[in-house]
Amino acid sequence: MKYKFISWNIDSLNAALTGTSERAALSMAVVEKLAAELPDVLAIQETKLNDDTKKTDKILAILAKKFPDYAIVHRISTPPARKGYAGTMYLYKKSLPEPVVTFPEIDAPDTMDSEGRIITLEFPDFFVTQVYTPNSGDGLKRLALRQEWDSAYRAYLQELDSTKPVFISGDFNAAYQEIDLANPKNNHNNPGFTDEERAGFGELLTAGFIDSFRQVHGAVEGVYSWFSQRSRMAKVNNTGWRIDYWLVSERLAENIKRSEMLDTGARQDHLPILLEIEL
């Protein structure tokens, strides 16, 4: 059976689904494109939902219309973490076997376990899990905490992998190799491209997981998943970063059929990433 999985950092569901700006219209176009792709599972990061149930119900109702054959589960940031921060969501086809849904805590430092960063779906033959990895922050003020997160998250994934294969997606906030960003020399030791973050991501790969994009495309250059909104010409000039990944348990490497970014037109920020695998 062939499965299609898509993952996307949307940078605010509310802005995308209820906003009236030009960017909101571009975001909605991406949502509609993803609905047309009919993925078996759609992972969404940085939802930025909060405990305002009236607003959340409105957003969920819009999603239910766009994705009528899908179940929806989501996780928000809770105290002591900031309200309306981070957050993750899954939409999965109701025709799939009903998964066991968990909101893992991994003994992460600071408020990271309360920031709604991980959701895991357990299906009969595999796990699908997503992550919105903490950013090291301006001035790398959260880098040490990020390193603790990386270690705890790696241990969590290894625990899953010891039971059944795992498909892992999300915004990892790390470009691993120099070919994963347009300007590696200028960005060395900036958040997302520090030696520590790169080493942490490398340890994840050596722990038994593969980068599905590199598995399919090898050392291709100039393909990125994120373009900074701070630079209006970043996407036009293709000065981006590849920080969004589908990782796969190593033993399923040969089952991967597609792994690629999906075009978002003029919209900058993150591109959705697609994985097709045959089991």
Automatic annotation (TrEMBL):
InterPro entries: AP_endonuc_1, AP_endonuclease_F1_BS, AP_endonuclease_F1_CS, Endo/exonu/phosph_ase_sf, Endo/exonuclease/phosphatase. It holds the Pfam family Exo_endo_phos. GO terms for molecular function: double-stranded DNA 3'-5' DNA exonuclease activity. Its EC number is 3.1.11.2. Keywords: Hydrolase, Magnesium, Metal-binding. The keyword Hydrolase applies. Gene3D superfamilies: Endonuclease/exonuclease/phosphatase (3.60.10.10). Residues 6-254 form the Endonuclease/exonuclease/phosphatase domain. It comes from the Bacteria. Its cofactor is Mn(2+); Mg(2+). Belongs to the DNA repair enzymes AP/ExoA family. PANTHER family: AP ENDONUCLEASE, DNA-(APURINIC OR APYRIMIDINIC SITE) ENDONUCLEASE. This is Exodeoxyribonuclease III. It comes from Lactococcus nasutitermitis.
